[in-house]
What does this fold into?
Amino acid sequence: MYSKEHKEYLKKIKINSFLVRFIQILIITLFIFLWQFAANHNLINTFIASSPKSIINTIVNLYQDGTLFHHIWITFYEVIISFLTGTIGGIIIATILWRFKFISKVIDPYLTILNSLPKVSLGPIIIIIAGASTNSIIIMALFISVIITIINVHQAFTSTDENKIRLLKSFKAKPYQIFFKLILPSNYQNLISTCKVNIGLVFIGVIMGEFLVSKAGVGYLIMYGSQVFNLNLVMTGIILLAIMASLMYYLITFIEKKLAK
Amino acid sequence: MDILKVKNLRKIYHAKNSEILAVDNFSLNLKKGEFVAIVGPSGCGKSTILSILCGLDKPSSGTIQIDKKLKFGYMLQGDNLFDWRTIYKNCLLGLELENKLTKENIKYVNKLLDTYGLKDFKKAYPNNLSGGMRQRVSLIRTLATKPDILFLDEPFSALDYQTRLAVSDDVYQIIKKEKKSAIMVTHDLSEAISMADRVIVMSPRPSKIKSIYEIKLTNKSTPIQNRKAKEFAYYYDKIWKDIDYHV
It folds into this structure.
């Protein structure tokens, strides 16, 4: 069994993590409570700042309309599709660049330009080419995530320990073997953090796309709400987004833990 | 019988604004079962010679004659174990790459692991092993593909002094027991004298062979024992003067 000191040490850790969780919950509860309190007593303008109660009412109304999950699903669908294509496509292109240094040298300046270009500016062109549909939204989000994925992943791949590559070459390893035995597994952490960054970027792209062109989705709710001065709807959209984005983030962390086992 | 003949090897490195003559006029014949050490000041292109010999680099000129059937094993500075693989999997790396995961080969790897004190660590990850053990794993990984000639590039430089002595003793005995030939590059003179049958001293860049010593010690046995031989100091002194080290 553990010594008395060790038990105390464990107890301390437990109390500490409990305190952290407790204060976290306290902050959000207090925030919601104060918000509602201020709204009830006309300390804030509820027309602009909305209130927790009216947000919940809006959500319930949307649910009763049957449109709540429709909007969430549309946004979720766009995020997933552009996340998967952006991340996987980016990794594949980065792999090609890693394998063929000549190509990587040639397209390097173009990547830099594309990366520094604000992708929103491509919006109108994308809409004209791909039409005013979810396709343009997906393409826009894809654009935002794929360029930075290529750059980051390629950077990570090329900075793999040179000595380990030499070791594999001394066993006469072929490039695909070097890739699957060394490059991919040794950059596992990098790939995971690229995924985490991409989730954020793809959400930006999708919401931006929905602002520009959409008939449904959470971004559409926000845009529509602001146009008809229904700030409750705007706030609801933002909160739905916050929930969705953090769920996606935790999903990746969950997958990361699963894979690490 | 010479199993490896190197003649007039020359290597030039090209950079944009300069060319560097790294190795010039290097010749070497290696006999079966022989252990040759190459010493020289740092940056004299010792490692370059090894990477050319095992085909990672191309010589600028010169010839390398070798029996096509012979296999090389290359042990680099540092152990370069893959953190995400178990010790066992690390040892199988070379066999995997060469598509030789036969029952017989796997059995051989297991035997090596058992013989050299890593029996209980097969499922462990490299992070849980000491520097000396890691180095032994690295050697077993190299031996697994049954090379005839081993190229050792400062194999012990990452280790602290005590471990270094112990591991070089280990490695030496493993190499002798498995009847391998070896060429080792090192900057540690006593390591070279205590392990090698022949020591080649290189001059600073552009490095050429400065002198060659056949090491003849009375009661030659393991490296640690060899350090006690009475000729040891004599060779040490000679080679030290040849290297002509200036601070």
About this structure: The interface with chain B takes residues 161, 163-164, 166-173, 177, 181-182, 185-186, 188 of chain A (CB under 8 Å). The two ends of chain A are 28 Å apart (CA to CA). Chain A has two domains: 4-44, 58-260. The mean pLDDT of chain A is 91.
